[in-house]
Structures are given as structure tokens and as C-alpha cells.
Specification:
The complex is a heterodimer of chains A (582) and B (371). Chain A is mainly alpha-helical and 582 residues long. Chain A is built from 26 helices and two strands. Chain B is built from 15 helices and eleven strands. Chain B is globular, with a radius of gyration of 22 Å. The chains are: A mainly alpha (582), B alpha/beta (371).
Chain lengths: 582, 371
């Protein structure tokens, strides 16, 4: 293929994706402008006048910053211990710590609620984060802080969710650093103390990785919706505020106030997240550069098996990761039963599983919803993987051509969907389809569209560092073997990025399975419920019927198990020492 | 610097592109619109999570008529109206089921429904009193009122309130959860009830009462589920995830204690606060969407929904009263026994709600922000 035709294909992919990613936002924004009579800039200026927006912004900034900090506090020691010692199965731990990141947020929310509720693990230990009695109640009374328990539960849930970011960025860096460097700096005056070694060795190497993971944690905590909805019921983030009012936004001459809320909140969120994404992109590039500079001398073999402190840290982290998932699993077998004399009490039963499978309490049974989810996930994969691949290869090609600014601009643009509220994506898709081809509403595969928009950035994040790591010499060596072009491409290029491609595929499928935000809105235009929508449907229903809750937990367990399985399969293909992130 | 300019340009681009949506076509005379979607023989029903419409019920309709049914489900009654408004130019469903009498006037005013030709008989006057036109027809009903935890009041030696003003007193501080009328249909129904309640009072008005309630730390939630399940101590909430249990009173249906008992072997410690004019008689409607493709199927489904076989099962299947004359709640497990029936409910008319709802919601937002 000639360079011109290569660029033509890349150009079409870039244009198609950027249109796909930006048009729903533009449509939504255009309709909101039409309804409110305000331009996006006016909406920004009016932000402080909008009902509940200022409080939501304060809370969002506070919880996102605290969540990012807590992710570093919890994740850094685990990543450090995992990278520094020779564990028997490091891949197992890496996979385990990565699972929460692809877990549907609603499942995570249920798991955490079970841990903090009466009779839950934390409550048993005397920490009441839900009703805020005892220690937490005292904290609230002494400080005047409203609902500290809910805030603590929320930031721990976000840290649980984002733990894998720390592991993915920091652990390979620690593992690849030659122990000789540490010995050498120890001989110098600046490396005599622990602080000195931190300042002159560890921070310059680990700093970009830690900051990159922290900025991504900030970003995902900022846009969190389901965890906020369930864990912090007294507070709104910008995303949950938009979700609450998003339903009636964009309708002419009706509830203009809700359109104003969504428009102002989405513009503020967009600008803040754009800045965060720019920072993330810069940090990730810096991390890639530092990572490529450090040697591949293994710290693990030099330091041997983990000591008791490292074991304690990593095993505690594993327990922290598993606890909410196990809690949800056990709750699927607990059904409350009532009696006139003794009131109600939960009993062990498989009736919740039976109800979930039969679909008596939801639009469809778990089997059918899982089928829909898998079908959509597969379709999403078929579009998102090649698109993300093309975008990543375009960015890398620009970097190789020494056009860093253009590469950076494209890199940031591919991340744009992460800066746009899922509510806006859903509304934009609805309006766009209505305007262009309403018949599409009866097309069962419409929900794939927002799934593709939201998963492509992750494909780019995985593939780009992998492409950067491929040496051009490898392709040249393949060329001298007298292979045909396809074989040359396979042996000189693809075989080196096959692992990351499988990882990107699994991530795409997992994200699509758990996608909740946009499908939550787009489902209004169809009846193709996915498993995550069925879980939410059940959880949102009045639960007078005692089977509804265990049925929701059973559906969540199926979703959890499928996601878990996918991720473990993908981990087998991840190259040892892969430090590209995700 | 160039990069920053590029990003800024990207944002600025959105403003000029806002001309890409044209104005929605008007239908001021409420004429019947052509089908918004192709008629593929499937009856599409826009509804919220109505448990009465289980797969068994819709399959039976398909067996009787040969018309397959597809459900398009939204969150609640407000979601049905939002969906119909958003897709006004090309409606995607044929029949709506679930708009209540606080939303129906808006739907009719916006020409979202068209006349039906269903021929139901035996509709009770309590259901048909609010609206008797041909654009919508009631299919279930119930009274929205305050529920309280009898045990909690008894343990705290508190007396049952005899006036809504009692709830602004210190002993009720932070102990009542209200679903927001802006985002919840029971919340909206209760707002209407308070408007009527204070219209009979010589002292104070509804909005001043709402301001006082917020000043007394009343809990405002997005929907009924959070208020009843997460905050209310009298219901099943304490057996669900995320229960906080800080409210001894909340907004629900007067027959909710009966539903509690029905599912818990005749056990409940929840009851309703029976104050004249403090409850709202909610009626839920079904109607054919203006722009439907399957008008015949929609008419047949209305008849089916109002048939004795289906409608008399509303108390068990949809936890609401049937609209058929001469029906009542079942006696099973104390359902009927624990359900309360208000002696004087709101008399707010269709015209009053149609004329005032937007203003009431704006006033409520202002009143609660003031607190």
C-alpha cells in the first residue's frame, strides 16, 4: 500500500470517528441552545444561577480530587510491592486488580452498599458509613461535615474502581528498574537518605506514571454517575445532576429549566475534562519516554520473594478488590421472608436466581439480556477495534514524521468522548437519528453507536503505547526474509502488538457489557435491554416483592462473572512488562 | 500555544453549528398526524416499569389478536411524557400506558394523543371524574398520601400529626423524606395535594409550608424509590442495600401499608396519615399516541387492558386499584385491611392542573431554594 493510500484510509477513519464522536454532542448542544435561547458561552456564564449546579460542581471537584488522591495512597504501595518482588503469579494479581476497572458501575455500587450496610463487613468493624452513627456520627457532629460517611464510601469505591490505573502505570516501571541504579545512587551523597533516593531516583522515574494514573482517576471520578447515585444520595455530581434532569431536556416550550441545567453543567464539565485530558495526554507521553529509558534489568529476580510486609499489602489489596464482588454474589441468595408475629428476616434461597432467569420481574430474563449484551459487545468490538487501531496508528505515524503538535492534537481529540457527558451522548444520538433517519429507531443495533463512541478512546490508549514500542528494525528484518507483504506485516509488526490488540478487544467488550450511561437514555427509543440495563431496571423498581433485590444481585453476578472471565482471558495475552497503561 | 488555540477552536465550533436543527413542525389544531414509523404489524407500547404488563399478559394479548407487542420502557410517568415530546416529529410508539393526571393535561395540550375507539364499560366514577374525553382512558388508580412509621412514633412518644403545620415542628426535624415534584410523579402528586390543602387554610400557604419544611431539614430525593426505600423506616427499605432509615414519614400511596402486609404475611408497621385534602387521587391513563402506526392494535390493547380478566388483577400485578366499578383490593395477607382510604381527597380539576402546574413547580423550586 502506498503512503498516500495509507493516509487516505487514515484520514477517512479520523474524519468518520471525529464526526461520530462530536456530532451527538453538537446536536444535543444545538437543541439545548434552541430551547433555552442561550449560546454555549452564555450558558457557561449563567452556570452559577442554575438550580443545584454550583453545589454539584463543588462536590464533583472535591470527590474527584479526593478519589484521585486515595487511589494513589492505596494503589501505590500495592504497585510498588507487586513490581519489586518475585511473586509466584504476578499476572494473576495484575488481572485481579484490573477487574474493578471494567466492572459495571452499578454492580460496584451494589457491592459497596452491601459492605457498608447493617451487618456488612465495615459495620461489623464499628464503622457505620451509611447511617453515620458512632465514630462517623461523631466526626460529622464535631466538624459540621454533612454526610462524611457517604463521602468516604464514595471515594473508596472510586479508588477501588481506579486501582488498576495505578497498577498498570506504576508496577511495570518499578519491575523494570535495574536494582544497580538504586545501589549506585546510594553511594552518592544525594542518595544517602530515603528522602534523597525518593527525590533523585524514584520520583523522576515514577512521578509521570503516578500523576498520569491520578489524572485519569480524577477524570473517571469526575464523570461517575451510578456510584454517586447509590452511595451519596444527598449529593449530586455534575453528571448525576444531568442524569436526574436529562430526561426532559431538549424539549421545546416545556421545562426549559431542565435544558438550562443540562446545557450549563455539560459545558462546564466539558471544559474541565478537556483540561484534564490534555494533562493526561502530556503525562502519558512523558511516562512513555521515561519508561523507554529505564533498563529491562528485572528488579523482581534481584530482590527475590516478597517479605511479610509486601505480602500483607498485596493480599489486603486483593481482599479489598474481591470484597464488594463477593458481597453481591452472596446477596443474590438472601431473600427476605415475612411473618405476622416476628416481622421480616432474610433467608437463604435460590428463588432470586430463578426469578432473574425467568424474567418474571424484568423486561426479559438474564439469558436473553446477556445475549443482547454479548451481541452488542461483539458489534461494538467489530467497529471500535479497527477504528481505534487506525487512530492510534495515525497518531504514531505523525509522531514518527516529527509532527508532535499535530499528533498531540489528534491524541487529545480521540479522548473527546470521555469529556462529554453520557447523557449528552444519549440525547444527541436521539436527536440526530430523529433528524436524519427516524427509521433507525427500529434498528436493533442502534445502541452499538454510543458504545462505539465511548470505547474507541480506550482502544487508542492501549494500542498507541504498543505501537510506539515496535522498533522499525523488526519490520526491516522481516523484509529480508523474502516473505510476502502480508507475512511481512504479520511477523514484522502485528506479532509484536497482538497482545495489546487482544487486551484492547477484551476491554472494549467489557466496557460495552457494562455500559450504562448512554444506554440508559438510548433505551428509551427501543426495547433491546442489555444486562446492565436489566440490573438497573430491577434495582430501580419498588421492592415490595422480596424477590426483586436478589434477582438484581443474581443478574449482577452473571454480568460480573462474564466480565471477570473476559479479563482473565485477556491477561494471558498481555506481554510481560507492558507499561502502556490500562 | 497553537495546540491551545486548536482546542479552543474546537469548542468555539459548536456555536455556529447550532443551526443544524430546524424548528419542530407545529400541529396547533391537534390534527391526527401520519404514522411516525413504519407499520410492521408490531404494537409498540411506551410505558414505565409497569409490572402489570408482564410477558404472560402481553403474550395472551398476542394469542387473542395475533398482534405482537414490543415494550419501550422509560423510568416513570414523567419519562413517558418526555419521550413523546422529544420524538414528537416521528413518534416511535403506538400506545402510551402510564401518564397520570398531573401529566395528562400537558400531553393533551401538546397534541401528543389522538382519539381512541376503544369501548370499555363499567369504569368507576372515581376514575373517570378527572378526565372523560376521548384522548385517554384510565386503567388504574390510587391515592397519594403521607405514610408514617407507627413503631417509631410510638417509641418516641410522639403524637400523630393533625395538621401539616405540625410537621414543621422541632420533633419532626430531618425525619420526613419527600420525592421531588420536579423529578418524581408521586412527588408531583403530593405537591398538588399541598396546594389544595392550604387553599382550605386561613393561615399560611403551600409554598411557605414547603420553605418551612426545608428549613426543618426535610429530605428531598430524586424519586419515590430513594425516599421510600433508602430513607423511610416504616417500609421494606431496611432489608435492601443502601438503607439509611432517617425518615419516619414519606410520600407514598395510602394503600402502601396494605402492599407491605401483602408481601410480608400480614405484617407492617407503616400506616397512612389521614388528613382531609392532604392526599391526591392519582389516576393513570392509557392513550393512543398521535403519530401511531398501529392504531387498530392500540385500540384492541386498551380494550384488553380494561377487560375484567386483566384489570381486576391490578392490585396484585401493578400494586394499584382497578378502575372497574365494584372492585376492591384483595383480602389476602391483610392487603385490604392495612390499606387506608382517605375520606376527603383533592378536588383539583383538569383545568386547574393544566393552567398552574408549571407555575407551581417554579414556585416550589424557589420556595425550597429559599430555605
Amino acid at each position: 500500500m502506498t503512503p498516500t493510500s495509507k493516509w487516505a484510509i487514515r484520514g477517512i477513519s479520523i474524519l468518520a470517528y471525529l464526526s461520530l464522536a462530536s456530532l451527538p454532542f453538537i446536536y444535543a448542544l444545538a437543541r439545548l441552545q434552541q430551547v433555552t435561547g442561550h449560546t454555549p458561552w452564555e450558558a457557561l456564564w449563567r452556570f452559577s444561577d442554575v438550580y443545584g449546579a454550583t453545589e454539584a460542581l463543588h462536590y464533583t471537584l472535591l470527590e474527584a480530587t479526593a478519589s484521585a488522591a486515595l487511589t494513589v495512597v492505596i494503589g501505590l504501595p500495592i504497585a510498588w510491592c507487586l513490581g519489586r518482588y518475585q511473586w509466584r503469579r504476578p499476572a494473576f494479581f495484575r488481572a485481579l486488580f484490573s477487574v474493578p476497572f471494567v466492572m459495571p458501575a452499578i454492580v460496584a455500587a451494589m457491592g459497596f452498599l452491601l459492605l457498608v450496610d447493617d451487618g456488612g463487613l465495615l459495620h461489623t468493624l464499628g464503622i457505620d458509613l451509611r447511617k453515620e452513627t458512632g465514630l462517623i456520627g461523631d466526626l460529622a457532629a464535631r466538624t459540621g461535615w454533612d454526610h462524611p460517611g457517604h463521602f468516604i464510601a464514595l471515594i473508596f469505591a472510586h479508588a477501588w474502581f481506579n486501582l488498576s490505573l495505578m497498577i498498570r502505570f506504576v508496577e511495570p516501571t518499578v519491575a523494570r528498574l535495574d536494582p544497580a541504579w538504586e545501589e549506585q545512587i546510594g553511594l552518592l551523597g544525594q542518595g544517602k537518605t530515603r528522602l534523597g533516593r525518593f527525590r533523585h531516583l524514584w520520583w523522576p522515574i515514577l512521578g509521570p506514571a503516578v500523576l498520569c494514573a491520578a489524572s485519569l482517576s480524577f477524570l473517571f471520578s469526575f464523570t461517575s454517575f451510578a456510584l454517586v447515585k447509590w452511595l451519596a444520595p444527598f449529593n449530586n455530581t455534575l453528571e448525576s445532576l444531568m442524569a436526574s434532569y436529562g430526561g426532559s431536556a431538549g424539549i421545546e416550550n416545556y421545562r426549559v429549566d431542565t435544558s438550562e441545567i443540562v446545557m450549563s453543567a455539560s459545558m462546564v464539565q466539558f471544559l474541565i475534562l478537556l483540561a484534564a485530558l490534555y494533562l493526561t495526554s502530556t503525562l502519558q507521553q512523558r511516562h512513555s519516554t521515561r519508561f523507554s529509558l529505564i533498563s529491562e534489568g528485572g528488579a523482581r529476580s534481584a530482590r527475590g520473594p516478597p517479605n511479610w510486609r509486601a505480602r500483607l499489602i498485596v493480599y489486603s489489596g486483593a481482599g479489598f478488590t474481591l470484597a464488594p464482588m463477593l458481597a453481591a454474589f452472596f446477596a443474590s441468595f438472601r431473600v427476605r421472608e415475612g411473618s405476622f408475629t416476628s416481622g421480616m428476616a432474610p433467608q437463604w434461597s435460590v428463588e432470586g436466581w430463578r426469578a432473574a432467569w425467568s424474567g418474571d420481574l424484568s423486561t426479559m430474563g438474564v439469558g436473553e439480556a446477556l445475549g443482547n449484551s454479548l451481541l452488542y459487545a461483539f458489534c461494538t468490538l467489530c467497529i471500535a477495534l479497527p477504528t481505534g487501531w487506525m487512530l492510534a496508528s495515525s497518531i504514531h505515524a505523525l509522531e514518527l514524521q516529527h509532527r508532535p503538535r499535530m499528533a498531540k492534537a489528534l491524541d487529545v481529540l480521540t479522548l473527546l468522548p470521555l469529556a462529554v457527558s453520557a447523557v449528552m451522548v444519549g440525547l444527541g444520538v436521539l436527536l440526530g437519528v430523529l433528524k436524519t433517519m427516524p427509521a433507525l429507531f427500529q434498528w436493533s443495533f442502534l445502541p452499538v453507536l454510543p458504545h462505539v463512541i465511548l470505547t474507541v478512546p480506550f482502544v487508542v490508549r492501549v494500542m498507541l503505547p504498543a505501537m510506539r514500542a515496535v522498533e522499525p528494525e523488526w519490520k526491516e528484518q522481516a523484509l529480508v526474509l523474502n516473505l510476502n507483504p502480508l507475512q511481512t506485516w504479520y511477523h514484522g509488526y502485528f506479532s509484536f502488538i497482538r497482545g495489546p490488540a487482544v487486551v484492547a478487544s477484551s476491554l472494549t467488550v467489557a466496557f460495552s457489557l457494562g455500559e450504562f450511561g448512554a444506554s440508559w437514555l438510548i433505551v428509551r427509543a427501543g426495547s433491546w435491554d442489555t444486562l446492565s440495563v436489566v440490573v438497573d431496571q430491577l434495582m430501580s423498581r419498588p421492592k415490595f416483592d422480596p424477590l426483586i433485590q436478589p434477582a438484581a444481585m443474581a443478574a449482577a453476578t452473571v454480568l460480573m462473572a462474564i466480565t471477570f472471565l473476559l479479563f482473565f482471558m485477556a491477561e494471558r495475552f498481555r506481554p510481560e512488562g507492558d507499561g502502556g497503561g490500562f | 500555544m497553537k495546540l491551545n488555540a486548536l482546542l479552543l477552536m474546537c469548542v468555539l465550533l459548536f456555536a455556529p453549528l447550532t443551526g443544524c436543527l430546524e424548528q419542530t413542525e407545529s400541529n396547533d389544531d391537534c390534527s391526527v398526524l401520519p404514522a411516525g414509523h413504519a407499520d410492521d404489524g408490531v404494537l409498540r407500547i411506551l410505558t414505565y416499569d409497569i409490572t402489570a404488563l408482564s410477558e404472560t399478559v402481553t403474550d395472551e394479548f398476542t394469542n387473542q389478536t395475533g398482534i405482537p407487542v414490543e415494550m419501550i420502557k422509560v423510568d416513570d410517568a414523567g419519562g413517558i411524557l418526555d419521550q413523546m415530546m422529544l420524538t414528537k416529529s416521528a413518534q416511535q410508539a403506538d400506545l402510551m400506558i402510564g401518564l397520570d393526571n398531573t401529566y395528562l393535561p400537558t400531553a393533551i395540550e401538546n397534541c401528543l394523543l389522538q382519539p381512541h375507539a376503544a369501548t370499555p364499560v363499567n369504569i368507576a366514577s372515581s376514575a373517570s371524574a378527572f378526565y372523560a374525553g376521548d384522548q385517554a382512558i384510565p386503567f388504574d388508580q390510587g391515592d397519594v398520601c403521607l405514610n408514617y412509621d407507627e413503631d417509631a412514633l410510638s417509641e418516641a412518644n410522639m403524637t400523630v400529626p393533625t395538621h401539616l403545620h405540625n410537621l414543621t415542628e422541632e420533633e419532626w426535624k430531618g425525619k420526613i423524606a419527600f420525592p421531588s415534584p420536579v423529578t418524581s410523579s408521586p412527588g408531583r402528586a403530593f405537591l398538588v395535594a399541598t396546594m389544595e390543602y392550604f387553599s382550605y387554610e386561613t393561615e399560611g400557604d403551600a409554598m411557605a409550608w414547603w420553605t418551612d419544611m426545608l428549613a426543618n431539614d426535610a429530605i428531598i430525593t430524586t424519586g419515590w424509590t430513594e425516599a421510600y426505600e433508602t430513607h423511610y423506616t416504616g417500609g421494606y427499605g431496611e432489608y435492601t442495600e443502601g438503607y439509611i432509615g432517617d425518615a419516619w414519614m414519606t410520600v407514598s400511596y395510602c394503600h402502601s401499608p396494605g402492599v407491605e402486609a401483602f408481601y410480608a404475611e400480614n405484617y407492617t408497621h407503616s400506616t397512612s396519615l389521614m388528613l382531609d385534602h392532604s392526599s391526591f387521587h392519582q389516576v393513570e391513563y392509557t392513550g393512543i399516541i398521535n403519530g401511531a402506526a398501529q392504531v387498530n392494535g392500540a385500540n384492541l390493547f386498551i380494550d384488553y387492558l380494561l377487560s375484567t380478566d386483566v384489570n381486576t388483577n391490578m392490585p396484585e400485578n401493578n400494586l394499584m386499584y382497578s378502575v372497574l366499578e365494584g372492585t376492591d383490593l384483595p383480602e389476602t395477607n391483610g392487603y385490604r385491611h392495612h390499606a387506608d382510604v382517605p375520606s376527603v381527597v383533592t378536588t383539583m380539576t383538569y383545568e386547574e392542573i393544566d393552567a398552574n402546574m408549571d407555575a407551581w413547580l417554579d414556585a416550589w423550586k424557589a420556595a425550597t431554594q429559599q430555605a
